[in-house]
């Protein structure tokens, strides 16, 4: 008789689809929060362990592993299993690969791995710590699909693998996309959680700064990270690392050395080529992939005259050099998919480790109990060995002997005091009137008589005491959660010390402050400004240190009747504050200022700034940041000084900002950033100097003319302003190449407005003073002449002399050549 029942097809479809969905979610697509693995990954690593395919053993064919996985535990397609193995071995996918592959396992260009019959694998060393406690009954095992084998339902996992390596998966009606993190940071956060389980997400973020991708890159903005860590969902902006290089002939090159996570390099290059052909990006002459085993490198040559910074901006906006990682932190918690924040992941892992360590200690405790029980029997028997031998000789039947041994009550009290040991006596009292168990009897009878005779009571006793101490230690851990936590902490620190490394992905904290300079390498540069207004920037590393008195080398092409009047050493991440003869201040962002070759003359500054008809820039100042407690200190040719708060120059204006007012025919000669606690020295052209405190000059508005800083004689004018530190030297240089190094203490501290003291002796041979710098012996000194020749010498080569001396030759000048400026590096 056929048994049929009627059902509604809608109900059957719903139930069948739900069963399928649950099967996909639990059995395929989502990782478990405890070990961070999907079933296929877990079974693969377990098979490798069973096949002794450890990190320090020989590689095995991938096909061998795949065969065992699908034959024993994972009855799905071999391609799916091999693809999982490939992913676990790719260093550009996993932050810490779990499989060590030998052969072609694909590339960041999207190339497929070789067939599994050609590749070989073994576990990576860090993967061993996912399975290290399996032998101690720490996890439960379940039968495989045909009930012939057993495999673990979870791995013990000594480190939080899900956070460390991340995961990606699409299930039915849900998906997960968890970014990888730095192992050291994650373990530090876990330890912080152990110390304070009520720690907030903000507190954890002081240890985990954000994702750490294997392909490096730059994360821009922390808002997306904060959202992801608090809610489980967030958007993280990742950008490539791009450097701009300049060769000796002035050509610009764009070098891409890091890509956003999961960006295909080959497709990226194809996209750039396509944009160039479509003329959506202008100025790219050549693009070439120069990547090799040492790292990624995409070379882009820029057309002459094109600004490489603008091209970089276009590449970020039109290609995947800037990409978004959509965080969706879904994982299985007790076989239920849940959206977790950062604290939820760490809490689940710590709870998992507590269970693992507890079960491991309990396993050891039970094993020690069995061993102690056997040792107790042996110890009791050995203390009565003579009687045991007589008993053995007295019985012909083994069964009768066993029965007698079971019924026998063993007295050991008479052995008290044999050892001068309180513990021995307490053990004797415990074991007195002892009855052997069947297991103990069988152990004794299994021993050969000769072995029993050879056994030493002292050795058995020491082993018994050792096992007893271990047993008490395990019992203490099982009853004391703090001890359990200490074990977890020690193991986490061990993994951190062994595998922890430096962060790869940089993080810029505020996306709103994102400017191009964040993607330009911070490098030391030299800015020169000529009398007629030509400005140029070049790398300071192009000038190597020479011997004092050398001729130097050409640094700037000088037009007839022109000469360099300003030299500044700064970097590409600051701002150039330009002061004009009209008393106005203008700004140039140095990250956007093109580098030039040594032989070029630069660009007219009037092309960069909105200057009036007869307005010229005569002083330039490098600003790194605008701080409230700092000031701009100005000195004019006639000796007037003034102090203005630096913060008032923060907001840039295209048409400039009035910085000061002048008396007739006066102009700025030097400007410095100072603190109110600083001291300064003013130097005149005839070598006189005056030292006074900055606080002697009160802070005024931008419109003021200033007050007298130094009284000057006839044909005397100010040439330099020096801000002093407690240590260092003063170097004064003259127009004919002489220079003198003297101690700061040689200049007496006075009130402003005086005539000063002699700082350097000048005459017709040395010429007038042109510039003064405060230096240390470890500094270098850049010197530039009217012909654009630049020399770099070591300050240590210049001997220290008194104030009333002319000094030594710093640079060898030609007949009509003059030294115009010096700057420390």
Describe the structure.
The protein is α+β, with helices and mostly antiparallel strands and 825 residues long. The protein has four domains: 31-157, Topoisomerase II, domain 5 (Alpha-Beta Complex), CATH 3.90.199; 241-320, Gyrase A, domain 2 (2-Layer Sandwich), CATH 3.30.1360.40; 355-454, Orthogonal Bundle (Topoisomerase, domain 3); 522-824, DNA gyrase/topoisomerase IV, subunit A, C-terminal (Neuraminidase, 6 Propeller). A four-stranded mixed β-sheet has the order 14-9-8-17. α12 crosses α19. The radius of gyration is 40 Å and the shape is elongated. The relative contact order is 0.07. The model has no long low-confidence stretch (mean pLDDT 85).
In short:
The chain has 825 residues and is an alpha+beta fold. It has 19 helices and 41 strands.
